[in-house]
Amino acid sequence: MKTLIEFIHERQEAFPGATGELSRLLNDIGIAAKIVNRDINRAGLANILGLEGSTNVQGEEQKKLDVFANEHFIKALRNGGQCCAIVSEENEELITFDSELSNKGRYVVAMDPLDGSSNIDVNVSIGTIFAIWRRTSPVGKPGTKEDFIQPGSKMVAAGYVIYGSSTMLVYSTGAGVHAFTYDPTVGLFILSEESMRIPDGGNIYSVNEANYIYFPEGVKEYIRYCQEDHPETSRPYTTRYIGSLVADFHRNLIRGGIYLYPGTKKNRQGKLRLLYECIPIAFLAEQAGGKASDGFRRILDIRPGTIHQRSPLFVGSSHMVEKAEYFMRYYSRDFETNA
Ligand code: AHG
Ligand code: MN
Ligand code: MN
Questions:
Q1: Are residues 133 and 222 in the same domain?
Q2: Which helix (H) or strand (E) holds 261?
Q3: 43: pLDDT confidence band, cut at 50, 70 and 90?
Q4: What is the mean predicted confidence (pLDDT) over 324-328?
Q5: Does ligand 1 lie within 6 Å of residue 112's CB atom?
Q6: Of 27, 66, 208, 309, which residue has the fewest beta carbons closer than 10 angstroms?
Q7: Ligand approaching nearest to the C-alpha of 88
């Protein structure tokens, strides 16, 4: 039995120059994840029973879980001192702390504190996504937006937490993808799979098909292709769409599949955000042997222009992503210039 902390330290020892700061940062994220996990597990009860602390004991209004999650992660990163700036889906502006401790931090973190918000109230899996870069601004000052204007290929680490039938933390520092399952009886994340590999092919496609009429021709053709009989199985592929990127990606990572959130004529950049959805998930996909693309370009080659920039996303098993890219190139060249 190996815990997340033991595993991170063991890995760190393989890098002679490592100072332990990244390990501490990952550990801080793990701590915040446990607190958020507790809140999520109590959410249903809190609503029904008005559990202490969740309603008005301190005269506070009950906050929405995505606001709670945001606060917990920000607090953990502020107290940890390794992070000098945060970009969060919940905050329009960059978050800096301007404290002596945080200004010395060498990393910046982009996060989606609660992914899949539409599933919070219906007891369906949700997640947290994080991406970590080394700062480019001078140490000793607050972090800047420019620290985030780096392509995903420069990323130091990325991961997600999935709050599902069990809670798992999945992360990579560029040397494979590793998964840890939370054991609430001892309060620890325990290593459950080292060096995960996504199957090259798969038969699951995950897309919000209700948007079909707005999709680029390339995506429509790809969906039609998925709905044909395939020689391996003599049946069409299968649709699985949860509506939480983390949960959809996690399943496809294990079973093999593709997740698509394309651009449309109205929203050419799609819906998902580059910094804290597309790039970290792309990093994990590649680290597990899969692919991630905006239909034409590798996601990790895109240099974000702004911190909340959106991008289309096609991510998962490499053969499936390549096939979707082929249809995009063939039928939807007009979407290529949407950078
Ligand atoms: P968030 O809850 O952080 O806003 O993200 C939701 C994202 C993603 O997780 C999910 O796959 C997608 O939006 C669902 O969008 P649709 O409801 O448009 O399918
Ligand atoms: Mn999200
Ligand atoms: Mn979110």
A1: no
A2: strand 257-261
A3: confident
A4: 98
A5: yes
A6: 208
A7: 3
- Global pTM reads 0.95
Tokens read off for 37: 């996990």
CATH number for the domain including 185? 3.30.540.10
Residues 76 and 131 in one domain: yes
pLDDT tens across 110-157, in order? 999 999 988 988 899 999 999 999 999 999 999 999 999 999 899 999
Q: Show the tokens assigned to 39.
A: 């809140």
For residue 53, give both structure tokens.
């602390």
Residue 77 domain-assigned (yes or no): yes
**Ligand 1 near 271 CB (within 6 A):** yes
- The answer as to whether 107 is a domain residue is yes
Same domain for 161 and 263, yes or no, is: no
The CB of 66 under 6 Å from ligand 1? The reply is no
Note whether 230 and 328 are same-domain residues: yes
CB 245 less than 6 A from any atom of ligand 1: yes
Residue 237 C-beta-side C-alpha neighbours within 13 Å: 22
The four Cα atoms 70, 182, 160, 328 give a dihedral, to 10 degrees, of -130
Any idea which ligand is nearest the CA of 116? 1
In this structure, the answer to whether residues 60 and 85 fall within a common structural domain is yes
